[in-house]
C-alpha cells in the first residue's frame, strides 16, 4: 500500500508521517527532498525553489505518478508526503492499494495558532531557511486545497481546534484502510511459519535458552500447520498486506496466537484474542483454554486468564515450560451475550 499525505506547507504532514513510520514500520519519502535533489542535480530541471507549489507539482507529477505505480506493482508499502499532489491527477490513481489523506488547517486555526505553526516548523526536521511567507499565504493555500479535495471527492481532514485530536482522527482513518482482519489462507502458510520463527527467536529468547528456542522452531511442520489452521477457526491481522498477528481456536482450545516481532505492543494480539473468544462464545462454549509460554503468560493474565498448572512439554528431546490457562465466560452469558 502507498499512503499519500498531502497538504499545504506547515500543515503537519511530516509529523504525521513520522507517527505512521513508528506505527507501521514502513519507509517514507518527502517530496521536498526529491524536489531539491532535482534542482541541485540538474542545470535545468524545469522549475526552481521559488516557483509556486502548483507549478512544481505540475512539473514533478510524471515522477510522482511513476513512483507510486512502481511501488504498487512491486507490493511495496511506503509513505509519500509533500505539497505536490494535484487533486485532479491523484483522483485518477485511486485504487485499493492507494490511501490518500490531505491535511487542511482552517482559517481560524491558522489565525489563532500562526506563531506556534512557525515556531514548531523544525520539530521533525531542521529547515535551513526560516519561514518568510505571511499568514495570508497559508490561509489561501489551505482553502485552495480544501476546495480541490471537495471538487474531486478526495479525503481531507480539517484541523479547526485541537491539532492532536485531528491527528488521531487521521491515524484512525488510515488504520481502517491499512489493517485488515481475515480468515487464514493456504497462500499464507510460508509467511506465517517465517513470522512464527522470527517471533520466537527474537521475542521468546528472553524466557528460554538458545537450545529451547532451536527446538521450539525446529518442531514446525508446514503441512501439519496448514492442515490444522485450515481445519480450525483461524484468523490473521494484516497490516498493509503483511501478517502482523495470527491465531486459531479448535473448539474451546486456543491453539496458537503470535504477533510479529515488529508489531509488538500495538494491540494486534488483542484483536485476535477478542475474535477467537467471540467465536468460542458463539459456538456455545463457556470457557476457553490454552497453553501459554512463559513470555505470553502475562498477556493472557491481563485479559482474565487464570493459571491451572505449570508444565513442561518436550520438543525434539528438549523440555520447555509453559502454562495451562483458562478463562470462563459465565459472566458474559449472564449478561445476555
TrEMBL record:
<dbReference type="InterPro" id="IPR016181">
    <property type="entry name" value="Acyl_CoA_acyltransferase"/>
</dbReference>
<dbReference type="Pfam" id="PF13673">
    <property type="entry name" value="Acetyltransf_10"/>
</dbReference>
<dbReference type="InterPro" id="IPR000182">
    <property type="entry name" value="GNAT_dom"/>
</dbReference>
<dbReference type="InterPro" id="IPR052564">
    <property type="entry name" value="N-acetyltrans/Recomb-assoc"/>
</dbReference>
<keyword id="KW-0808">Transferase</keyword>
<dbReference type="InterPro" id="IPR027417">
    <property type="entry name" value="P-loop_NTPase"/>
</dbReference>
<protein>
    <submittedName>
        <fullName>GCN5-related N-acetyltransferase</fullName>
    </submittedName>
</protein>
<dbReference type="GO" id="GO:0016747">
    <property type="term" value="F:acyltransferase activity, transferring groups other than amino-acyl groups"/>
</dbReference>
<feature type="domain" description="N-acetyltransferase">
    <location>
        <begin position="179"/>
        <end position="330"/>
    </location>
</feature>
